[in-house]
Design goal:
alpha+beta; 2 domains
Length: 170
């Protein structure tokens, strides 16, 4: 495929509408086909939506895909009466993206290892610093059981999603 044809295909994929699918009663998936997706579990009794998987193809990153997916997820969550979007985050870029999309006011970051015992929110800067420190240590001494992740809670109760993309249900 020529470079020109290839970029046209990429542009069409990025311009496609975000799709939404209910996998089961308590699971949803928002996706931009062949580009990225988020899978999440709904806990209506707790008014929470927990992001289980969030993936954007490596060659499609930094093009606004993650932002579109997170925004579309918030639109669905608000429709479902959800007040909080939660998830475990191990990547500083993903952590920063949550902050940019959902804002600082309702963002709470917890040390995932101590979550049940001590839920002390930390700042996003400290969380990113910790992830980067862990990544550096891992590079120096690779260990599959080593890493830093955080449990992130975004309170979307007051989030205005009026102008955000509403995913097409399939």
């Amino acid at each position: 495929m020529s470079q020109n044809k290839s970029s046209e295909v990429i542009d069409k994929k990025l311009a496609a509408p975000v799709r939404f699918r209910r996998v089961r009663d308590k699971e949803i998936r928002v996706s931009l086909p062949d580009v990225g997706y988020i899978e999440a579990d709904i806990a209506k009794e707790d008014k929470e939506l927990h992001i289980r998987e969030f993936e954007v193809r490596e060659d499609k990153r930094n093009l606004g895909v993650g932002r579109r997916l997170l925004k579309s997820l918030a639109v669905i969550a608000k429709d479902e009466g959800i007040e909080k979007i939660t998830g475990d985050v191990i990547d500083p870029t993903a952590l920063s993206l949550r902050q940019k999309v959902y804002g600082d006011d309702g963002l709470h970051i917890y040390d995932a290892d101590r979550r049940p015992l001590q839920e002390l929110p930390i700042t996003i800067d400290k969380a990113i610093e910790s992830i980067q420190r862990a990544d550096k240590a891992y590079d120096e001494h690779p260990n599959p059981n080593f890493g830093t992740d955080f449990y992130v809670v975004s309170d979307i109760t007051d989030l205005d999603v009026t102008d955000w993309e509403r995913p097409a249900e399939k």
